[in-house]
Amino acid sequence: MGRREVAFSIEEPSTPRRVAVRRELAVFLRTELDKVYVRKLETKAGTRTTVGTAHVYEDAEKALRTEPEHVVARNQAPEEPQGSPEGGGEEESEEG
Fold first, then answer.
1. At 96, is the pLDDT very low, low, confident or very high (cuts 50, 70, 90)?
2. DSSP string, 9-74
3. Which H or E element spans position 8?
4. What gap in Å lies between CA 51 and CA 43, rounded to an integer?
5. Are 52 and 24 in contact (CB under 8 A)?
6. pLDDT in the model for residue 36
């Protein structure tokens, strides 16, 4: 199928963000970020251990064809609001 399933365990005081786990797995496995998709993250109650699984593909296009849309969406970095008035926005300078 052109992919590997990777099981992992992380020791942290709180549950790590899926995006950060994906990035670290890509670095650790020496592969491109768009080939790694975290499928499951679960923090064991009363512990600082998070266990999970990820799929690592040989081809990024195959990953997008194979992984369900909701998994792909979960593995994307959240978009930051740009120029929204409620979010404080960016400061503009009056100087030229």
1. very low
2. EEE-SSPPPHHHHHHHHHHHTT--GGGEEEEEEEEPTTSSEEEEEEEEES-HHHHHHHS-HHHHHH
3. strand 3-11
4. 6
5. no
6. 97
- Between CA 26 and CA 54 the distance in angstroms is 10
How distant, in Å, are the alpha carbons of 2, 5, 20, 23, 73 from that of 77?
Answer: 25, 22, 9, 10, 9
Rounded CA gap, 63 and 69, in Å?
11
Q: Cβ–Cβ contacts within 10 Å for residue 79, how many?
A: 6
pTM summary value = 0.76
- What is the predicted pLDDT for the residue at 90? 45
Q: What would the pLDDT profile of 22-75 be if each residue is shown by its tens digit?
A: 999 999 999 999 999 999 999 988 899 999 999 999 999 999 999 999 999 999
Q: Which fold has domain 3-74?
A: Alpha-Beta Plaits (3.30.70)
Domain boundaries, the chain: 3-74
